[in-house]
Amino acid sequence: MSLAKDEKGRFAVVGAGAWGTALAALYASAGHEVSLLVRDEARAATIAATRRNEAYLPGIDLPSTLHPTANPSAALTSADIVLLVVPAQVLGSVAKELVHAIPSKALVVLCSKGIDRTTGRFASENVREIIGARRLAVLSGPSFAADVARGLPTAVTVAAEEASAADAAAARLSTETFRCYASDDVAGVEAGGALKNVLALAAGAAIGRGLGESAKAAIVTRGFVELRRLSAALGGRAETTMGLSGLGDLLLTCSTAQSRNFAYGLAMGRGEPLSGLKLAEGVFSAEIASRLARERGVEVPIIDAVADILKGELSLDEAMRRLLTRPLKRESAD
Ligand SMILES: NC(=O)C1=CN([C@@H]2O[C@H](COP(=O)(O)OP(=O)(O)OC[C@H]3O[C@@H](n4cnc5c(N)ncnc54)[C@H](OP(=O)(O)O)[C@@H]3O)[C@@H](O)[C@H]2O)C=CC1
Ligand SMILES: O=C(CO)COP(=O)(O)O
Q1: Quick one: 239 and 104 in the same domain?
Q2: Which residue, judged by its Cα, is nearest atom 17 of ligand 1?
Q3: What is the pLDDT of residues 189-203, one digit of tens each?
Q4: CA distance linking residue 142 with residue 258, whole number of Å
Q5: What is the pLDDT of residues 283-295, one digit of tens each?
Q6: In this structure, is residue 140 part of a structural domain?
Q7: Residue 1 pLDDT grade (very low, low, confident, very high; cuts 50, 70, 90)
Q8: Could you tell me if residue 312 is left (phi over 0), alpha (psi between -120 and 50 degrees) or otherwise beta?
Q9: Taking CA atoms, which of 121, 158, 170, 246 is between 20 and 30 Å from 181?
Q10: Where are the beta strands (DSSP E) in 170-318?
Q11: Are residues 25 and 70 in the same domain?
Q12: Is 83 annotated as a binding residue?
């Protein structure tokens, strides 16, 4: 049940990076009224004038009905749906800064995929006390910004604490090319979105180091076991990890250098410079994911290895040796 064609929403998208711009383009193309809140005034003016966001979505024409602005109240005042699309590490501060400008009845949709490394919290936990849980939803699933901005089809999960609120949010966020499945498993959806990024670093590193597709498949499969274990320990349901924001996004992100996390892992594996690479959320989530697992007594050897490599405490070759020489055991999915 998506919105009827004449039921148009007033969307405000906060964050004009790749994903924010893509979602703004998606909803503007679907006929909704859309404001895109850009941090920098000059960039907002350039996007408005050129109908392009070359820094983040090169070569993609943006609909003329999308309104870029650097003015928070202009973007937010009349919105009935607000999408927060900034990196996980700044989501809390951005929410605090804007909360007074967000209309009290607006649905607030969190689109970041990561864990705040200072608080150890996922997006909804971080923002709940600022915005209020009742009007929050999270959106996650296999969705490269460039694909969505071009109008290519995909399906994602939209979660909210109440099942009926999730149904309503999924209906409002679905378009003809963007199919939203509803879920009331917020923890599971957020865990899937954040942990797949860490595992994509490992998959990319294996390919970059020349270990081959077989090694990558083994890492992705055993990584998925870790995702399932840790998600369950954090309150997520098993069926969610088998869905779009678990297996679905893991497969996408571990399969191509179009993923910034996979590309970052590739560069790590090749020993190439890492500075100047695009946002790879897994880099910020790895150590805290490893800590959350340790605190809950959950075994996540691949996630631990990624965290140790990023801290400079382990080489890739040592990491592979460490993984391959763990005590042999029966294969188990949990
Ligand atoms: N790209 C994708 O395909 C997808 C991304 N996501 C998730 O969405 C989130 C955002 O990713 P994405 O848009 O791709 O990232 P980008 O790096 O492309 O863009 C980040 C955006 O956040 C803004 N920003 C950064 N810091 C702040 C701050 N302190 N205050 C306000 N704005 C800030 C940046 O502004 P400025 O340009 O001024 O620095 C920029 O507009 C991530 O968690 C990512 O995992 C989810 C699904 C798909
Ligand atoms: O989350 C994404 C696809 O679903 C985007 O992945 P990257 O951030 O690795 O590019």
Answers
A1: no
A2: 279
A3: 999 999 999 999 999
A4: 12
A5: 999 999 999 999 9
A6: yes
A7: very low
A8: left
A9: 121
A10: 178-183
A11: yes
A12: no
Q: Are residues 34 and 160 in the same domain?
A: yes
Nearest ligand, CA of residue 22?
1
What CATH code is carried by the domain that includes residue 171?
3.40.50.720
Full strand arrangement of the beta sheet holding 81-84 = 66-69, 33-37, 10-14, 81-84, 107-110, 136-140, 154-159, 178-183
Could you tell me the pLDDT band of residue 133, with boundaries at 50, 70 and 90? confident
Residues 84 and 168 in one domain: yes
CA 281/CA 196 separation, integer angstroms? 10
Residue 238 structural domain: 194-324
For ligand 2, atom 6, the nearest C-alpha belongs to 259
> Band of the pLDDT at 109, cuts 50, 70, 90?
very high
| Ligand lying nearest the CA atom of residue 255 | 2
334 — pLDDT class (breaks 50, 70, 90): low
Do 163 and 218 lie in one domain? The reply is: no
pTM: 0.97
- The CATH number given to whatever domain includes residue 259 is 1.10.1040.10
**ipTM score assigned to the predicted complex:** 0.99
- Around ligand 1, the residues with Cβ closer than 6 Å are 15-20, 39-40, 56, 85-88, 90, 94, 111-114, 143-145, 279, 281
Pocket test for ligand 1, best of 83, 85, 124, 285 (most atoms within 8 A of CB): 85
Distance (Å, whole) CA 45 – CA 31: 22
* Residue 2 in domain: no
* 4 band by pLDDT with thresholds 50, 70 and 90: very low
Whether residue 254 lies inside any domain: the answer is yes
245 lines ligand 2 (CB under 6 A): no
What per-residue confidence (pLDDT) applies to 3?
Answer: 46
Distance 18 CA to ligand 1 centre (A): 6
User: Any binding-site annotation on 329?
Assistant: no
Domain stop point among 135, 155, 184:
184
Instruction: Output the CA 316–ligand 1 centroid distance in Å.
Output: 28
DSSP state of 16: -
Active-site residue list: 196
Of ligand 2's atoms, which has the minimum distance to the CA of residue 280? Answer: 8
Q: What is the DSSP letter of 247?
A: I
- Tell me, yes or no, whether 75 and 150 share the same domain: yes
